[in-house]
Amino acid sequence: MKLKFIFVIILTLLIVDLSYAQEADFNFIGAGARARGMGGAFIGLADDATAMSWNPAGLAKLETPEASVVGMITNYGVSSDIDEFDEEPYKSSHANLNFISGAVPLNIGARNLVAGVAYQQIMDLYYKYDGEDYTDERTGGIYAITPAIGVQLSPTFSLGASFNIYTGKTEYTSEDLTGEWDDESYEYSYSATNFNVGALFDYDKFRLGAVFKTGFDLKEEYEGRDFSAEISMPNILGFGVSYLATENLTLAADYEMRSFSESEITYEDSEPDTLGWEDINQLRVGAEYLMMSGDNIIPLRLGFATTPSLYKDDQGDQITGYNLTAGVGIIMGNINLDLGIEYNQYSYEFEGWDETYEYSENYLRFIIAGVFHFNK
Fold first, then answer.
1. Is there a domain that residue 110 lies in?
2. What is the model's pLDDT at position 353?
3. Which of 38, 44, 143, 251 could bond 242 through an S-S bridge, CB–CB 3.0 to 4.6 Å?
């Protein structure tokens, strides 16, 4: 059956109904090959410019001006035990700019105050189906322009805040290859704003972090038509801890809570409707080991994260995936180069044709980052 684009972007992603559309990732984690290589366990460790996307209090750890750029390559595939199921039409690969930032320390007396601004892709909306009868493709994403500030109030305590200006656009095109249907094309735009506040506390070899991200209404507008909707996004509360186990080994863990069960959708002047989503509470753990190589440092990283989805399977259980991560880098004076790898899988059962079937979605992501320090 030909896949039709439904107005609200979320409703196009009902993987429990076997729509074969990649689910938008509502595990709103931050950016950076270093952090992602550690499973995203970075709330209590944030100490570079990517802190703007994890915990803005970490900006106060910067001692010199810093710029960073992060790119991501995503490969997607599915598998199932359905007889004669063809995986090929659902496979896709694409690349995008994931994060770019700049930050400058501004010393005020004994306190270190750091200001920065970042541009980050919050949600990747890419999807592609390339079948014999028709092709579907959705491009674009939701992005945030983020000015942020971090201040060190004492040698052991820092606070930070950021303001997110969300913007974005997605275009959906469907081409019929049989001559029986008309080709279709739709375009949607997105907008919203919210605040993040964070704190970091250093105690001996431990660092404790907390971040609160305010909820917001994501507005979606159908380009060329006077029609819009708003989806309420929940508050997000996260906690993190890192531990310097040895001079070269750091361990970290995060727990982040997102109450999506309270989310609603409002079509123009109508009353809000509940979306029936599940809460997304995510655990992330990671480790980083620094290996010396002459005058350079080579970090090695491993991580793991749970990746809950918004939906339940046919047995009434929340669909929860997992994310296995690894990373490597090299620190050469003023330049840090990093590579992160993620393998993210969702597997679940569904009922169909009087049988129970297995189905899985698989993501393989490569995160490539460069961090540049000035006056170091």
1. yes
2. 66
3. 44
